[in-house]
């Protein structure tokens, strides 16, 4: 089973310039619009809306791309 995160969890992920850090804002479990794109998520394959602590911007990541801080 893949990793699970909750709202408020501090995470990091690989980014263009190295490693980015942020906080999980939401677990997405259905097809929806988030962070400027269509997210094709499901209860079996959730994705996470994360807010960057550096830029304040949001991004959506699959759980395997995130690491707990």
Number of strands: 7
Q: Strand-and-helix sequence, N→C?
A: EEEEEEE
Helix content: under 10%
What's the gyration radius in Å? 11 Å
Numbering strands along the chain, what is their spatial order in the largest sheet? 6-5-2-1-7
The outline comes out as globular
Percent of residues in β-strands: over 45%
Largest sheet, in brief, is: 5 strands, antiparallel
Quick structural overview:
By secondary structure, the chain is an all-beta fold.
Key traits:
single chain, 69 residues, mainly beta, two-stranded antiparallel sheet, 0% helix, DUF2945 domain-containing protein, Hva1_TUDOR
Describe the structure.
- It holds the Pfam family Hva1_TUDOR.
- Residues 1-13, 23-34 have a biased composition (Basic and acidic residues).
- Residues 1-69 are annotated as: Disordered.
- The protein has 69 residues and is an all-beta fold.
- It has one domain.
- It has strands spanning 10-15, 18-28, 32-34, 37-39, 47-52, 58-61, 67-68.
- The strands form 2 sheets. It has a 5-stranded antiparallel β-sheet with strand order 6-5-2-1-7, with no helix packed on it.
- A hairpin with a 2-residue loop joins strand 3 (32-34) and strand 4.
- The model has no long low-confidence stretch (mean pLDDT 93).
């Amino acid at each position: 089973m893949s990793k699970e995160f909750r709202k408020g969890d501090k995470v990091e992920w690989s980014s263009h310039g190295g490693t980015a850090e942020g906080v999980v804002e939401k677990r997405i479990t259905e097809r929806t619009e988030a962070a400027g794109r269509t997210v094709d998520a499901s209860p079996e394959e959730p994705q996470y809306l994360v807010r960057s602590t550096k830029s304040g911007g949001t991004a959506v990541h699959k759980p395997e791309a995130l690491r707990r801080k």
